[in-house]
Amino acid sequence: MKAIRYTGLALFLFSLGLLLALFFASSYTLTEQLFNTQVKKEHQELLRPEVASMFGKTYGLSISFVNSLNSAIERVNDKKRAEQAWDQVIYDDYAGSITRAATSGVIKTHTTLLFILVFVVGSIGALMYLLPQAQLAGPPGIKNNGIFHNSLNNRGWMGILVGTLLILFYIALYFFDAYITNWIILVDPVQKLINPSGQSSQWFLYGFLYTFAVLVMGVRMLIKYRHSKYQVFRTISVMFFQLSFAFLIPEILVRLNQPYFDFKNMWPLDYDFFDAWHLNTLTSSGGLGLFMLVWGITLFAVGVPVFVYFFGKRWYCSWVCGCGGLAETAGDPFRQLSDKSLKAWKIERWLVHGVLVFAVIMTAGVLYSFFTGSDTIAGLSTYTWLRQPYGFFIGAIFSGVVGTGFYPLMGNRVWCRFGCPLAAYLGIVQRFKSRFRITTNGGQCISCGNCSTYCEMGIDVRWYAQRGQNIVRASCVGCGVCSSVCPRGVLNLENRDEDGRFGKPILIGNNSSTLQK
Predict the structure, then answer these.
(1) Which Pfam family is an annotated match for this chain, by its short name (predicted)?
(2) Alpha carbon 258 to chain centroid, angstroms
(3) What is the DSSP string of 106-127?
(4) Domains of the chain by range and CATH?
(5) What does the pLDDT look like over 448-501, one tens digit per residue?
(6) Cβ atoms within 10 A of the Cβ of 72, count?
(7) What is the pLDDT of residues 53-68, one digit of tens each?
(8) What residues does 58 pair with on adjacent strands?
(9) Which long-range contacts (CB under 8 A, 24 or more apart) does 177-181 make?
(10) Which residues contact 154 (CB under 8 A, 6 or more apart)?
(11) pTM higher than the cut 0.85
């Protein structure tokens, strides 16, 4: 078994090393013919004098090529701004398209082979490493075997390295996609399978890697928590929804000339749902587009309160959501890093509800502009002061760079706990109007602390268990891991009548009093 695992680890590291090496594996040459095909005619006369020195010159790195190209565009824009010729300022993002067209080398000539070596061989290696774990680990169940005290899972050098790589990747993906052109080209074979006339983009690469991580690490999750039927079905659910609803169906819709739409995503997590371009796209796409619009509004306005009432926020956060799916699978090795302190809880409540308020105000401003045709409110631009800051700070930095890049540093639910406006909305409903609770049997609790250690949302579950109190917290996503790792069966996830939901009296000495938290 160990030989199989070591072989699998070697194959996985080979694929990972090859993926990183592909960043340096191409050359980039801009020709005048390529320039004419990629740049709009109205911009060619402006740009040609600035980029002429690049014609025929070969660059060995995407960074140097893109920097030279962007510098040329910026020189043109500086001149036009100085002349106040605002209509001639170039706002088009040519870096990505020109860099892709100028790319040559092994990534272009052997794309399919490289895809197989990176993702297929990497998957085989990962599975060879993970599957024997079921036999090597002995009987199913969670044991105190020190697995969370190594350099990867306890903020050691490996965790810091992984976190740094994730942060750098997200920054490149969101803001410098032209630099990772080779990786974008690498997933072209998958794009061609779904849409032969399509071409992979930065967001297709993101969606593919996201889904790939959920599926592969989902297998690990199934092995680790194989003793719990709840965890098995929950993991299969998030794998299914990510693969089908978040990845395949939207791409198939595009192939059918329909709007790109994720039927499981909703406002306010889908913060651009009410953007003018999105509303116009849906309303101009016939019956299906109108159905998507009605579906999206109904899901958050009716679906959330109804489903949360019967099942708690777990129906979405732990069974459907893509952010939760990645956190529960790829992020599972880091769940113990969530801060359980009272200070962290206070910050969490202010921050996550503050983002929700920001989302509501931003959306109100966007809708005001859409219906009135005015881009300003009280002299302030709704785009500059509301939509743009929200998209940058919340949509990109918080949910992406911090939300995932900080897995190895702050736990796997950083975004869900501190920043997700939808989680805040779901949590408010769950806290005040829901049948869901986690019941505890304090008489059976041995204070081992497994429940608190494994809680990804930073809840000190043991505090409740020791007192025999029900756990009713707005932040609880109902993942059920606290119950799965409890050796005494103290914790149970239940959907019952609301009566008695907030616990029962706690005996203190000879007197009884009710303590609720």
Answers:
(1) Fer4_9
(2) 24
(3) HHHHSHHHHHIIIIIHHHHHHH
(4) 1-136 (no CATH), 155-334 (no CATH), 342-422 (no CATH), 436-513 (3.30.70.20)
(5) 889 999 999 999 999 999 999 999 999 999 999 999 999 888 999 999 888 778
(6) 19
(7) 999 999 999 999 999 9
(8) 29
(9) 177/96, 177/202, 178/62, 178/66, 178/95, 178/96, 178/99, 179/62, 179/63, 179/66, 180/23, 180/62, 180/205, 181/26, 181/62, 181/96, 181/99, 181/100, 181/103
(10) 148, 336, 337
(11) yes
Q: How many whole angstroms separate alpha carbon 332 and alpha carbon 329?
A: 5
> In angstroms, how far is CA 387 from the centroid of its own chain?
20
Below-70 pLDDT ranges, the chain: 134-139, 143-149, 503-517
**Would you say 312 and 318 are in contact if contact means Cβ atoms under 8 Å apart?**
no
The whole-angstrom separation of Cα 403 and Cα 269 is 13
Give the distance from CA 166 to its chain's centroid: 12
Strand pairing partners for 440? 491
Whole-angstrom distance, CA of residue 326 vs CA of residue 306? 25
Q: How far is CA 104 from CA 26, 95, 100, 202, 392, in A?
A: 6, 16, 9, 18, 33
d(CA 464, CA 440): 7
